[in-house]
Every structure is written in structure tokens, then in C-alpha cells.
Design brief:
The protein is of the alpha/beta class and 206 residues long. 46% of the residues lie in helices and 15% in strands. It has helices at 3-10, 57-70, 81-87, 89-104, 137-160, 166-169, 175-184, 195-205, and strands at 17-23, 32-38, 73-79, 110-114, 126-129.
């Protein structure tokens, strides 16, 4: 059964689809951000949509403004470090997805989630699309909203913690970030449940 057959099986005749995607599952610091976007049925009223990872920052910013102006409904959720460390990154991502879909459920007949897993307790039928951010325009739009929101958060975080270089690597485990972590130790925005941060904490105590 392919994904398009699954679409018909999950929600026959669904026209209002919420695309759902996240940004920031892998970094060592900062929130994981999830967005949901619903476009009106028919041709998506935005040209140039793509997976956010394939777009430069300037292009993502321009598309962000168009998406929020032209989407029928949209919502962005940030799940903070405290929750990531408490329930783990997978569950934190699922929590963000559920909250994002709940916020657009007054419009959405179906949620289409990028990836291979669905959160429990969604308010509408849903399906998981592996590689959805390269196949579905609503998911592409959600990936852009999530990525832009998270990047803005990390740039703002840089103003308080400039020694880590958050404005450049956005919290990912680059050599620059790992070197700063070794030199300065973790800040309150680092994910203590992630091995490189946890190991640095243990080394500091020892």
C-alpha cells in the first residue's frame, strides 16, 4: 500500500490537510520546534516552497511571511529544553506535533506528518509520510515555519550566551560548538539528556 492509497483509507475525501514538520531534533541546545500549516483546497497560493533544508536563510524568511499571510490556518509550537530532558526528544517532538495539530484542528480534516511516526491523541485522522517535506507543499510550509522560528530563537539566545556561537551553528554539534562546550561547560539551554552535554557535566563534577 503506497502513501497515496493510505491517504484515501485514512480520511476519504479529505480536502483540508494540515502539513506538520519539526526543526531541531538533533541539536545539543535549544527547543524543538513544530509547525502545522493548512492551505485552502486547490493550488497552493505560494511559489517556491521546498524542504527548508534546501533553502537559504533569506529565502526561508521571505517564504515565512508569505505562508503566514496566505495559509488558511497555521501554528508553531516550541517544546523547551526542560521538557526534552524530562520526556526525551522523541516524546517532546510528538508532544509538539499534537499541540500544533490541535491548534489548527478547527480547519484540518487530516494531519499529514513528516516522518515515520504519529503522536497519540490527535484530534483528526493522520498519516505519516517519510520524506514528506520533499513531497507535500503543506509539509514544506510547516518545515519553513519551524526552521525560521527555531533559527530566530537561537540567534536571540546568542545575545545572552555569545561564547557558544549559537547564531552560527544553531545548537548543532559542530566542532565549534563542541569546543565551546568543553571550554565553558553547558548553559541553561543545553540538553542535559544528550550525551555530549551529559559527558561534559560528568567531567566537570569529576
Amino acid at each position: 500500500m503506497n502513501q497515496f492509497t493510505l491517504d484515501l483509507a485514512v480520511a476519504p475525501g479529505a480536502r483540508y490537510v494540515a502539513g506538520v514538520d519539526e526543526a531541531g531534533r538533533g541539536p545539543l541546545a535549544g527547543p524543538v520546534v513544530v509547525a502545522a500549516v493548512v492551505f485552502a483546497p486547490g493550488r497552493t497560493p505560494i511559489n517556491g516552497l521546498a524542504d527548508s533544508k534546501q533553502l537559504c536563510a533569506e529565502r526561508r524568511e521571505a517564504l515565512y511571511d508569505r505562508i503566514v499571510q496566505r495559509a488558511l490556518a497555521w501554528h508553531v509550537v516550541s517544546v523547551e529544553v526542560e521538557d526534552i530532558d524530562r520526556i526525551n526528544i522523541f516524546q517532546a517532538t510528538m508532544l509538539g506535533m499534537r499541540r500544533a495539530v490541535e491548534a489548527v484542528a478547527h480547519v484540518a480534516e487530516l494531519a499529514r506528518v513528516d516522518g515515520n511516526a504519529l503522536p497519540r491523541g490527535l484530534p483528526c485522522p493522520a498519516e505519516a509520510w517519510v520524506g514528506g517535506d520533499a513531497r507535500d507543499r503543506a509539509i514544506m510550509a510547516a518545515s519553513i515555519l519551524a526552521k525560521v522560528t527555531r533559527d530566530r530563537t537561537m540567534i536571540k539566545m546568542h545575545s545572552t550566551w555569545p561564547q557558544y556561537g549559537f547564531d552560527r551553528h544553531k545548537g548543532y554539534s559542530t566542532p565549534e560548538h563542541l569546543a565551546a562546550l568543553a571550554q565553558h561547560g553547558p548553559c541553561p539551554h543545553h540538553r542535559r539528556s544528550f550525551a555530549p552535554v551529559r559527558e561534559r557535566l560528568v567531567a566537570t563534577v569529576a
